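Summary of Year 1 activities. Much of the first year was spent building the evaluation harness for sequence design. The harness presents a backbone, in tokenized form, and records the residue chosen at every position. We chose the following record to illustrate the format because it has been used consistently in internal testing since the harness was completed.
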């Protein structure tokens, strides 16, 4: 019984961590897109 509980808790933390990294990746991607967009606008103004 204790092994099942421990395994369940570990799996919950692992799955939560995966979602966190996935979300962080999306945020970094959006920031990169914003930088690219700003650079393109600046290039067109020159």
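For this record, the design step produced the sequence shown next.
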């Amino acid at each position: 019984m204790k092994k099942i509980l421990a395994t369940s808790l570990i799996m919950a933390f692992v799955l939560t961590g995966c979602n966190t990294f996935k979300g962080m990746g999306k945020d970094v991607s959006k920031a990169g897109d914003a930088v690219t967009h700003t650079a393109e606008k600046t290039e067109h103004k020159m």
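The chain is about 95% helix and 0% strand. Quantitative recovery figures across the full test set are reported in Table 2.
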